Amino acid sequence: SPAALLMALLLAMLRTLVDEELEPEALVTRLNAQIWRHSPGSRFITFFYAIYDPVTGTLTSVNAGQNPPLVRGGPGRYERLAPTGIALGMFDQSSYSAVETRIDPGEMLVLYSDGITEAENPEGQPLEEAGLQVILDSYPDESPAGLSAQIIKGVERYAQASRFTDDLTILILKRQPVI
To answer: Residues 152, 170: contact at Cβ < 8 Å?
Structure first.
């Protein structure tokens, strides 16, 4: 319940700030200040905000403590998008920077929750980012929707479980090849 209320607060504030057409750094900095002011000191939010231009493939993003998204250029070829600031609500005066990345035709952006990479096998070993990449590389021609389903199945196989204490969230953006 407290987490749901915090997400409702985040969503309401985000909608207001997006309407102001701020640059990503300014938007996330202001969002952080609002979260810090209006949430309990023991709560924080990891957050990834991006603007994507499908014509140029340009992705401008701010990563506030979220797992580093991956840009998959092909099997075994990955670029990590590093965090550009700490989680929202930790400190009032936190600042954030944006990075610009190009997603080339055929490449995909893979965003995932820590429940994916922290899922443990029966021996207590987490899947980690390397395990996620193995799953991604196993389905090179799969659609984003199909690949998302395969990742969830792969995590369940690895953990030998279908119920988890943490969420398993995956979001994939694939830039279509130019025809």
So the answer is: yes
Q: How much is the average pLDDT of 41-55? A: 92
The SS3 call for residue 117 is helix
Q: What is the pLDDT of residues 139-151, one digit of tens each?
A: 998 999 999 999 9
On whether the pTM is more than 0.85, the answer is yes
State pLDDT tens for residues 90-121: 999 999 999 999 999 999 999 999 999 999 99
Mean pLDDT of the chain: 93
Measured CA to CA, the distance from residue 29 to residue 109 in angstroms comes to 24
Q: What is the rounded distance in angstroms from the CA atom of residue 37 to the CA atom of residue 92?
A: 8
Q: CB–CB of 105/73 below 8 Å?
A: no
Kindly list the distances between the CA atom of residue 86 and the CA atoms of 21, 28, 64, 102, 156, in Å, as whole numbers in the listed order.
22, 11, 5, 23, 30
Structure tokens at 88: 């929202």
Residues in the chain: 179
124: alpha, beta or left, given left = phi > 0 and alpha = psi -120 to 50? left
The structure tokens listed for 85 are 């600031």
